[in-house]
Amino acid sequence: MNAVDDYDTTVLHSAAESGSVDVVSLLLDCGADMNAVDTGGWTVLHIAAESDIGDVVSLLLDHGADMNAANNDGRTVLHSAAQSGSVDVVSLLLDRGADVNAVDDYGQTVLHVAAKSGSVDVVSLLLDRGADMNAADDDGWIALHLAAKCGSVDMISLLLDCGANIDVLDKVSHFCFVELVYYVDELKIIILVNRSNTTR
């Protein structure tokens, strides 16, 4: 039941990744360890969240799975859901009490991960739920830096409209505005910044 492969992956990990709710339910009823971790520190709930399988996530939570467990990089289940770009799973975890401002071992919040994944909808949801848009990771980057790196004008616009700090400096003393112009057309950025300044 709880046998593992060379990566400490259990049958329950595999069932969760495949999205088979019936198999996951059967394994849980038979005593499978829902909080078992693989060599990367990933729990079954991490796997289900990153695989965007809401029914399995909900089932595991109902059985008491630890949604605040962190993998070897300090990433929580909510980080994993944000990585997948799943609005439904992120919303479910937040509704169950997940920490919207959880930080991994590199100082990256869930919002950082969502910005890197390119999901404007997840970023918008996190902001609505109180995510700190100006939280800096270990490199001094805020979500706005990462939105720029993705080249997402919609995400940049959203973050600016919500009050992201364009004057923040990263660890190599680059202003966020410099990163925006580097990754995105300069004229678009100037227009966005000017619009943001006039609407505050």
From TrEMBL:
Upper taxonomic lineage: Eukaryota, Sar, Stramenopiles, Oomycota, Peronosporomycetes
SUPFAM superfamilies: Ankyrin repeat
InterPro entries: Ankyrin_rpt, Ankyrin_rpt-contain_sf
Pfam families: Ank_2 (PF12796), Ank_4 (PF13637)
Name by which UniProt lists this protein: Uncharacterized protein
PANTHER family linked: ANK_REP_REGION DOMAIN-CONTAINING PROTEIN-RELATED, PALMITOYLTRANSFERASE HIP14
Taxonomic superkingdom: Eukaryota
Each ANK repeat, start to end: 7-39, 40-72, 73-105, 106-138, 139-171
Originating species: Phytophthora megakarya
Keywords: ANK repeat, Repeat
